[in-house]
Amino acid sequence: MHNKDNNTLEKLFSHPISMNIEWNEVKHLLETLGAEVETTHSNHVKVKLGDQVKTFTSFHKMLGDKHEIKELQGMLEEAGHAPKAI
Questions:
Q1: How far is CA 77 from the centre of its chain?
Q2: pLDDT confidence of residue 25
Q3: Which domain holds residue 49?
Q4: Does some domain include residue 85?
Q5: How many domains in the chain?
Q6: Burial degree of 27 (CB within 10 A; 0-12, 13-18, 19+)
Q7: pTM of the entire predicted model
Q8: What number is the average pLDDT over the span 72-79?
Q9: CB atoms < 10 A from the CB of 37, how many?
Q10: What is the DSSP string of the chain?
Q11: Residue 16 domain-assigned (yes or no)
């Protein structure tokens, strides 16, 4: 994983939750980890990571919903991709 992806992962798991996370960075991280990321016909984002599938409201430029960031954290943790310090 590239340093930029590591930085994005750290932002996703920061305390307090960072509200300054760019969607394109998260998408790149997820795809690097093997996730399938697609925009649905209803303009939502569907993420499949391992055997997990979650649908989120459409992300534009920045992630801005703490609940959805928590959902992403849960997906990453379950798939074994949480930062080592957690």
A1: 11
A2: 94
A3: 3-78
A4: no
A5: 1
A6: middle
A7: 0.88
A8: 95
A9: 18
A10: --HHHHHHHHHHT-SSPPS-EEHHHHHHHHHHTT-EEEE-TTS-EEEEETTEEEEEPPP-SEE--HHHHHHHHHHHHHTT-S-TT-
A11: yes
**pLDDT at position 41, please?**
86
Instruction: State the average pLDDT over residues 13-23.
Output: 89
Given a contact cutoff of 8 angstroms between Cβ atoms, the answer to whether 7 and 19 are in contact is: no
Question: What CATH number does residue 38 fall under?
Answer: 3.30.920
Domain annotation covers residue 84:
no
The torsion defined by the Cα of 84, 5, 76 and 65, in degrees rounded to 10, comes to: 120
Are 43 and 58 in contact by the 8 Å Cβ rule? The answer is: yes
Please report which confidence band the pLDDT of residue 54 belongs to, taking 50, 70 and 90 as the band edges: very high
Q: Residue 40: inside a domain, yes or no?
A: yes
Residue 86: pLDDT band by 50, 70, 90 thresholds? very low
